[in-house]
Design goal:
binds guanosine-5'-triphosphate; 4-stranded mixed sheet; 12 strands; 6-stranded parallel sheet; Rossmann fold; alpha/beta
Amino acid sequence: MIEFPRDPQNSIPTSSVKIVGLGGAGANMLDRVALDGLEGAELLALNTDIRTLSGSVAGEQIQLGRNLTKGLGTGGDPELGNKAVQEAEDEIRASIKGRKIVFICVGLGGGTGSGAAPIVARVAREEGAFVVMFATMPFVFEGMRRREQAETALNELAVLSNALVTFDNGRMGELVLAKQGIHEAFAAADRMISESIKAVVRLVVRPGLINVGLDDLMTALRTTRSRCLFGSGISRGKDRAQKALRNALDSPLLDKGALLEDAQSVLVHLCGGEDLTLFEIELLMESLSKHVPAKAHVLFGAAVDPTMEDQLSITLVSSLPEERLRALPTEDKDRAKEERSLEPSMGFAAPTEPKVEAKVEPEPEPEPEWVQEPIEILAPDPEPEPEPEVDSKEEEIASDSKESEPVPEPEVEAEPEPEPKAAETSEPEEAAFFAEPEEGSDEDLEPEPEPEDDDEIPFAEPGPEPVKTGKQSGKSSSSTADDDLFGGDVGGGKAQSELSLDGGPKGRFEGADPSMIDGEDLDVPAFLRKKRH
Ligand SMILES: Nc1nc2c(ncn2[C@@H]2O[C@H](COP(=O)(O)OP(=O)(O)OP(=O)(O)O)[C@@H](O)[C@H]2O)c(=O)[nH]1
């Protein structure tokens, strides 16, 4: 066997890589990266909210606006976020100094992230780092104000970053089932972002047979305002190359590979165990070529990692300028969808046409966009795999709630089922719980009074009040989001008032002997148990 000496110049030492999580969403993304495991890279958390900051797993933490916001978030005010970060500019500069590449993860739309990200990017650039920004755009149901704040920050970041990768939370919300909770949607988004960050970091720090470097990465992500196209897949056994590619193309960020058809450059990275063969690589690249335009610039890297054993992974990274995305039919559809749902009553987007369930509850409660338009990825694949029973049930619910599908004789009144009720409520986690029991109580099917605050926006804070304590993300945010979604008056919040902690229904465990551990009845859902304390 011929040994190739590896050129150390081609890869970057991990100590030169810093991943910065900014604000509540950034902290969550950083936690996800850390939990999923990423060797070497240093993690730095920056936040105004001291509770979220101190809960971060990042090795290094810097509080923003120590004097200005005094440990609280900015209440959704980017100006405050901007001033807060200036207080800590010197500390941030010292922490970033000497790093070759700085990844900044931020959720745009709030105050800290949107206000501080441009300054952090500028400082990193001044220190000579290559800056890759991973930014999420808010869900449609978060309202116009957040969207506008996010857009403003994005415009600044497009100029300040070397590469700007945006993820649309709404699009990633498609990763979760319609009746799953908002936390699931965020978690799914975070997993996807974490995967992209790790893939990109691996590309540039891990020495491979064929290396890709920062210049390649920059080529792949070159456009200023772009949406990241990212997919990664892993497989083992027979046909692993084909399967891994199929998994990668299945990423919702690639629209099942369709978006690659317009890509100008695509970065492809393969990694396999010691049995990775040239034949497999050829096969895989040939299959991939069917999804990529012939004149696209394909940047190829490959690495052998003995810990992969018999697995093969493929990572695809590309980007499309927003103008091109707008020209695409799918994007047109998305835009139209967004505009529709941003109309009159904000908060959760109101359905444009009455749904079947309206027969049960004449005035259906508004639902989030991603609840109404679920899950392209659940559509049967060319080679469908058997799905667990619960999924098909959920699909049924999802398709039931599609506006366009006429159901001839719903007979919901005659035979009320818990599922449609679950799909209607804007409290997906709650709904999931109530949908479970077969012996669902009759009261559950009683029409609920409409919430008075139809247009309350769950994520839009009331103004530039720096004293907001709740956030919708991060450690602290989850409790507030719980409050917003389950205890507040948003959407179908009233369902919550029917829950009694002690006498609360136990779903399928109703009537069974309680499973008591340390005085806790484990059959009561975890979040209800939490509320007792
Ligand atoms: N992907 C993802 N997005 C999130 C998460 N939490 C919040 N977001 C998004 O990020 C935006 C900003 O939220 P945060 O990061 O909590 O806000 P912040 O930047 O800390 O600002 P303030 O809390 O207003 O000071 C929200 O509008 C959401 O769209 C999360 O856990 N994951």
